[in-house]
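Workshop exercise sheet. Pairs work together: one partner reads the sequence aloud, the other fills in the structure field after running the prediction. Swap roles for the next sheet.
Pair: D.N. / O.F.
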Amino acid sequence: MIYLELFLSFFQIGILSFGGGYASLPLIEQELITVQGWITNQQFIDILTLSEMTPGPIAINAATFSGNQIAGIMGGIIATIGVTLPSVIIVQLLAYFYFKYQNLSIVQGVIQGVRPAVVALIASAGVTIFMTAMFGHSDWPIVLSEINWVSVFFFAAGLFLMRKFKASPIQIILVTGVAGGIVYSLIK
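Structure field:
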């Protein structure tokens, strides 16, 4: 039964994940934590961290890691199929209709209308990840005394290295991962 529930949950996420992997993150969070209660907020953040560190699209990686966390290897496979199947079907249909009707003003209007909503979905996921990394939770209100200053330092360092020196995401992940392993092993 858990396999069917996983498939249906991730199939639904796949159908509603307009805007790419990062836009799917609030949907995954809502489904896995709030609706199903399968994982905690901290487990979700850990899954996102692992999903970002590994090659491939973040939504597919998150589905694989989540499914594995919830129901083992078969759960990971089923969640991955569930999240990708809608895209395969929808992209085939959209490609056909877009190339056939791309010059119609209504098609261009739909694209212009959806774009800001996709940005909002991505921003929402970013705020959740940021708050959890900095404060240990994503609930309001935030209390400044709960801030994790080590996380603030790594965030600032990563942002600085990316913006100032155009460091690649892989370099940032490797450097902060090694540094975090050292720092947190010394703190604990």
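Discussion prompt: The chain has a mean pLDDT of 91. What would you look at next?
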